[in-house]
Amino acid sequence: MQHPGRGDRAAHRIRATGLVLLCAHLLFVGWVTLRPLAVPWVTPTNLQPLATIRTELAAGPWEAAEGLAGSLLLLAPLGPLLPMVKRQLTGSWTASFLRTTGAGLLVSVAIALLQTDVPGRTFDVDRLLLNATGVAVGHLLLVPPLRARLRRRHRGMRPPYGRPDPQGGTPNISRVRIAP
User: Fold this and answer.
1) Locate the VanZ-like domain: which residues (predicted)?
2) Cα separation values, 65 from 113, 123, 166, Å
């Protein structure tokens, strides 16, 4: 039996930090998105994709940046946090990207469904698209550097017993024999 090495402790710390940050971020998102709004009017429900985005772009660059950036940045931290929590920083990059973006879209749908009963909040399909895009961009910007850093760190480590495998697999342990 191998004892946990330095790499196991680091992976545990990364996962624990990611879990704490993920919980804190989801609490913040819930607080921001599920509070009732006291407004004299409510925007109508939008089921037509890209209609709100076109409207905000037509209002001018400052209004568009202000309106669209909020939706893009709301769930963007999920891009790097979900792979940290699920230990997907060392696996397949494509699978991690697709799982993270899909999970971000599901979180966005859950928020949109919860907002239907909140006064002053309405459903907007463009918010779903922008939130999922924010998760994807957050993943693309932060996960590749994290993966490269972890690879550099693990490249210099030696397993606790035996000599290292060239492919990075299970180390050879000299006292283990094959049964006759």
Assistant:
1) 24-142
2) 25, 20, 50
The distance of Cα 100 from the centroid of its chain, to the nearest Å, equals: 5
Instruction: Return the HEC string of the chain.
Output: CCCCCHHHHHHHHHHHHHHHHHHHHHHHHHHHHCCCCCCCCCCCCECCCCHHHHHHHHHCHHHHHHHHHHHHHHCCCHHHHHHHHCCCCCCCHHHHHHHHHHHHHHHHHHHHHHHCCCCCCCCEHHHHHHHHHHHHHHHHHHHHHHHHHHHHHHHCCCCCCCCCCCCCCCCCCCCCCCCC
Residue with tokens 């089921």: 47
Yes or no: say if 101 and 119 are a contact pair by the CB < 8 Å rule: no
Give the largest CA-CA distance in the chain: 83
CB within 8 Å of 156: residues ≥ 6 apart: none
Q: Where are the domains of the chain?
A: 6-36+44-155
Total residues belonging to the chain:
180
Evaluate if pTM is beyond 0.85: no
